[in-house]
Amino acid sequence: MTDFTEEKLAADFAKGKTEALEELIKRCQSDLFGFLLGMTGRKDIADDLFQETFLKFVRRPQLYKDGFKFRAWIFTVAKNAAYDYFRREKTHNSISLSGSFEDGSSDSEGAAVLGLRGLENDQPDKRLENEMLGENIRAALLSVSPEQREVFYLRHYSGLSFKEIAALLNEPIGTVLARMSRATAALRKELVDKD
């Protein structure tokens, strides 16, 4: 099954091959959870939304239509689940790339965006430096609009192209590129100002 595309696995699951679901979850878990973690800033909520996203697929696999990229579709479902959560809770989405979350847990998943995954056991001075970098990036991302943060996280976690992100968000590609450019510029400015 590891040779199959995500689209083939989704189609197989829809036909009753339950082992295809396990492979799909394994392939999407890290990226999708990282995206939801970035959107919500809380591991417990990200975990709930991840489960909710795949439960929607499990209950109604026919919602995924052949011919569409599965990853784009599942990220759309996850994004909508996060928006529903925010509406229910009337909260603002918070961002955490490194450091701690509202629930007190640390963020090693968010560090993946920075290429810092696996540095938890690194030398203490390097770890401190990476935590400070993560804090600076988090502060920079909090200064941009939620739409810009969303594009930033989709690009870094989903593996989708800008064209696919534009389709997912139902926005012109120029708008998506502009949002990414502004988010990146804010990050760059924040990091340069901190030096």
Task: Describe it.
By secondary structure, the chain is mostly helical. It has two domains: 1-94, Orthogonal Bundle (Rna Polymerase Sigma Factor, Chain: A); 119-195, Winged helix-like DNA-binding domain superfamily/Winged helix DNA-binding domain (Arc Repressor Mutant, subunit A, Orthogonal Bundle), CATH 1.10.10.10. The protein is 67% helix and 0% strand. The protein has eight helices and no strands. It has helices at residues 6-14, 19-40, 43-59, 70-89, 124-142, 146-158, 162-169, 173-194. Helix 2 (19-40) packs across helix 4, helix 2 (19-40) packs antiparallel against helix 6 and helix 3 (43-59) crosses helix 4 (70-89). It is globular and about 55 Å long. The protein starts with 5 loop residues before the first helix and ends with a helix.
Please outline what is shown here.
The protein has 195 residues and is mainly α. The protein has eight helices and no strands.
Tell me the Rg in angstroms. 17 Å
Q: Give the CATH topology of the largest domain.
A: Rna Polymerase Sigma Factor, Chain: A
Q: Compute the number of structural domains.
A: 2
- Which CATH C-level class of the largest domain is it? Mainly Alpha
Mean of all residue-level pLDDT scores = 79
**What does the main sheet amount to?**
none
Residues in β-strands, percent? under 5%
* Structural class by SSE content: mainly alpha
How many beta-strand elements?
0
